[in-house]
Amino acid sequence: MKIMTFNLKNDTVLTFKKYRSNVRSVHIFDLLKEHDLDIIGFQECNDEMFDKLVKFLPQYTLIGQSRSKKNNGAFSEYTCIAYKTSLFTNNFSSTFWLSKTPNVIGSRNITSVFPRICTMINLTNIENNQHFCIFNTHLDHLLPYNRHKEIDVILDKIKTVLTSDTKIILMGDMNTTIKSKVGTKILDFTFKGIQFKNAYQSNEVFNTLHFFNGKVKESKFPIDYIFVSSNIKIIDCNIITTDFDGLYPSDHFPVIANII
User: Fold this and answer.
1) Which of 157, 185, 224, 245 has a 20 to 30 A CA-CA distance from 143?
2) CA distances for 155 relative to 20, 37, 190, 231, angstroms
C-alpha cells in the first residue's frame, strides 16, 4: 500500500503570484497521478483546493472538515484524507480539534494563533479485510508547548480506536523534527502492545520544508512524517523532490511510504 503526506501550502496575502495554489494546482495533480497513491494525507488544503481535489481525483473519496466555523482565507484549512474508493470501505471518520475540547468546532489552545485539527478515518481493505486507522494532522508552527499539547490529544484519541488487529498510520506536518519532544512522545507511545515506528528507515533524509527553492539540506531533518504502528511492515519511505520546469508543487516536499 502506498501512502503520502503532503502539505499543499495555503495562500496568504504575502504569497507571490507564481506560488499561488491556482498556478501550482496542475503540478500538484500531475505529481499525484504519477505516483498512483492509495491513501493521501493533505495539510494546508483551502476551500478552493479541496473542491479541485474532488473534481480532478474522481477515483478517490475525500474526507475532512475545515478547522474554522467560517470558511475564509487562512482560517479555512483542512487536514483532509483521500483514499481510493475501489480499495477501501470507510467504516467511520471524523475531524477533531487539538484543544481541551476536541469536539468543539474552531476551538484552540489559548496560546495558538489558529485552531489546529486532526482528521481520522477507519478503513477496511476490501481485498484482505485488514483494518487501518489513519490520522492526519498539522501541528502548531510557533510554540513547542502547543505542539506538545496537540500531540497528546491525538495520542489519547488513538487509544480509543486501537485494537490488536487495527493498523495505525499517523502522518502530517509536525512542524518539528524527530529529535524533539513531540517525536519522542510518538516513538515512546505504547498501548495494548502497539508502538509507533518512523517510516524513514535510512539515513537518507533531509529537509522537507524548502520554501519553493527546492534546496536539499542533508544536515537538516524533515518536519513532515509518516509513523506506522508496529504491526505494519515498512518497505521504503522517500522524500519526493520532483519539480516542473523549476516550479515546485508546494513549499514542502511530499513524503511517500510503501507499507504492508
Assistant:
1) 157
2) 34, 26, 10, 17
DSSP 83-135: EETTTEEEEEEEEEESSSSTTSTT---TT-SS--EEEEEEEEETTT--EEEEE
* 74 band by pLDDT with thresholds 50, 70 and 90: low
Q: What is the pLDDT of residues 132-180, one digit of tens each?
A: 999 999 999 999 999 999 999 999 999 999 887 889 999 999 999 999 9
The whole-model pTM stands at 0.97
pLDDT at 229 > cutoff 60? yes
User: What pairs with residue 167 in β-bridges?
Assistant: 132
- Number of CB atoms found within 10 A of residue 75's CB: 16
Rg over alpha carbons for the chain, rounded to the nearest Å, is 17
pLDDT-based confidence at residue 71 (cuts at 50, 70, 90): low
Q: In the structure grid, which three cell numbers stand for residue 196, read together?
A: 509507533
Give dist(CA 95, CA 105) in Å, integer.
9
In sequence order, what are the beta bridge partners of 113? none
DSSP state of 13: T
Angle at the Cα of 42 (from 106 to 64), degrees rounded to 5?
45
Q: Helix or strand or coil: residue 51?
A: helix
- By C-alpha distance, which of 132, 176, 133 is closest to 158? 133
Instruction: Delineate the domains of the chain, giving CATH numbers in brackets.
Output: 2-259 (3.60.10.10)
